[in-house]
Specification:
Layout (H helix, E strand, L loop, with lengths): L14 H30 L5 H15 L1
Length: 65
């Protein structure tokens, strides 16, 4: 559970610290999202092999019977 998922403290003096932590969480989320896209977008765009598609279709047919 990240800092952004936690409840805010009722102490207003802690609000600035929480906002700073939220900014760090947002920056990390952005960094992670970009990094994962950079690594895996090309893989996700590859076509699904015909053998795998055939196996999936055969499995669907066997479950319907």
């Amino acid at each position: 559970m990240g800092k952004t998922d936690q409840k805010r403290p009722s102490n207003p003096a802690m609000a600035e610290t929480d906002e700073e932590g939220e900014a760090v969480d947002n920056a990390f989320d952005l960094w992670l999202r970009r990094g994962l896209h950079q690594l895996y977008d090309t893989v996700a765009k590859e076509p699904i092999p015909e053998d795998l598609l055939r196996m999936i279709e055969d499995d669907r047919k066997s479950q319907q019977q």
